[in-house]
Amino acid sequence: MKPTALITGASGGIGYELAHLFAKAGYELIIVARSEIKLQQLKTELNDHPVTVIAEDLSHPNGAENVYHKVKEEGKTVEVLVNNAGFGLNGAFEELSLKEQKNMLQVNVHALTELTHYFLPDMKKAPFLNIPKGVLNVASVAAFQPGPRMAVYYASKAYVLSFTEALREELRGTGLTVSTLCPGATDTNFFKNANAEETKLVKRTMTPKDVANEGFLGFIKGKRVIIPGTLNRSMAVSTKLIPRSVAAKLAHYMDS
Ligand SMILES: NC(=O)c1ccc[n+]([C@@H]2O[C@H](COP(=O)([O-])OP(=O)(O)OC[C@H]3O[C@@H](n4cnc5c(N)ncnc54)[C@H](OP(=O)(O)O)[C@@H]3O)[C@@H](O)[C@H]2O)c1
Fold it and tell me: Hey, where are the domains in the chain?
């Protein structure tokens, strides 16, 4: 029997690349996103590899619960949970739609938290000892600072980082790996969907393949926080050295 990795947001970008890497490493896949067509395409690309497709909108308050029940109906257990689905919204907080910002919190924060809560008991019981099991949560370098004009997005990623680091400590000694992946700007649909294509943030992007590679290897090695790319790592370090008020000003400049 193969261990199973459930990956949210696998229909494109970083999640799509992570799905390929976990499949190559021998994990059976459960892939989740809204776009069933794209998920089915990924399944086809992976040929005979065992893949279960779950088309679900995680911005729906019952989205995470529905995913859990569908996994149980399929008789599957989850040994690795990759909470990657997420999106951003660019604009002044008061001008962005409240409904859309609540949807963003539902996907980036609530669904991630709920899925982790649902699947942890399975993971702890899972018998696979020679292959990593646990949780890989996708935050962002945005987690390290306040982000004017993407205020709720940055705050959601600060939650993901804090939550995941705390969980890692709670689960020390259980055999589970708990890691946070903090990508910098990556060439995916993220900026288009966030209405941030015209900002300076898109000037230096990494490929989703390179980000996923570093994320996957970091998780396999049991790293606490994985920041792909030398430039992103040095920027994350310098962010810690400057006052948060200055970091907020810099983030505001980058968003213009
Ligand atoms: N790209 C960057 O610069 C960057 C930087 C730092 C962190 N990140 C983080 O990396 C993660 C992946 O983003 P990406 O860059 O790969 O962007 P992407 O190409 O837009 O992929 C986002 C994924 O999330 C899924 N998703 C979005 N809303 C969803 C919903 N309501 N329900 C279920 N699935 C949903 C999308 O699938 P469907 O549309 O089919 O639902 C897609 O598979 C996100 O958490 C993002 O915040 C990205």
Answer: 4-254
**Ligand 1 centre from 47 Cα, in Å?**
24
234 pLDDT band, cuts 50/70/90, is: very high
Q: Would you place residue 254 in the very low, low, confident or very high pLDDT band (cuts 50, 70, 90)?
A: confident
Q: Is the pLDDT score of 54 beyond 80?
A: yes
Whether the pLDDT of residue 158 is over 80: the answer is: yes
- Average pLDDT of the residues in 136-142: 98
Ligand 1: distance of its center to the CA of 216 in Å? 17
Instruction: Output the CA–CA distances (angstroms, integers) from residue 222 to 102, 110, 177, in the order listed.
Output: 32, 24, 6
**Tokens at 107, concatenated:** 């996907």
Q: What is d(CA 92, CA 111) in angstroms, rounded to the nearest whole number?
A: 25
The ligand 1 atom at the shortest distance from the C-alpha of residue 139 is: 7
Please give the DSSP secondary-structure letter assigned to residue 111: I
Closest-lying ligand 1 atom to the alpha carbon of residue 192: 20
Domain 4-254: which topology?
Rossmann fold (3.40.50)
Give 87 Cα–ligand 1 centroid separation in angstroms: 5
Give the Cα separation of 176 and 168 in Å (integer): 8
Nearest CA owner, ligand 1 atom 7: 140
How much of the chain, in percent, has pLDDT values that exceed 70? Answer: 99
